[in-house]
Design brief:
2 domains; 1 helix
Length: 122
């Protein structure tokens, strides 16, 4: 079965081949994941077949295929790097004197080195 899917960049035809089912417990926490092939019935409608439990390695492989940027390569980071992920990078800057600039109607354009507290940036 092929489905037409419109995306921001193009219109393309895709074929439904697999289903990932996520089971939750009573507190809505994910508890189990299964992977299923998808076939079709006599009317060419999709039918989810019996599945198998998903392994952690299998789910990680799926993430590498779907969103390779999420799977960052291991690397030694400088001590001031606090976190890194898909679409974000957080680092700490120690307190220090910094050059700052501003321009306001009352004082005009100014620049100076001033003491600044530590901060996190992302």
């Amino acid at each position: 079965m092929a489905i037409n899917v419109s995306t921001f960049s193009s219109e393309q035809s895709y074929r439904l081949t697999h289903a990932v089912l996520i089971y939750q417990d009573a507190q809505r926490k994910p508890a189990f994941v299964s992977i299923h092939d998808v076939g079709s019935d006599d009317g060419n409608r999709p039918v989810i077949q019996a599945g198998v439990p998903a392994s952690k390695a299998g789910l990680m492989a799926l993430m590498r295929i779907l969103d390779p940027e999420t799977m960052l390569k291991p690397a030694i980071k400088p001590a001031h790097v606090l976190a890194e992920g898909s679409g974000f990078f957080v680092w700490y800057s120690a307190p220090q004197d910094r050059q700052v600039w501003f321009d306001c109607k009352e004082l005009g354009a100014r620049t100076a080195r001033v003491p600044c507290p530590g901060w996190c940036s992302w």
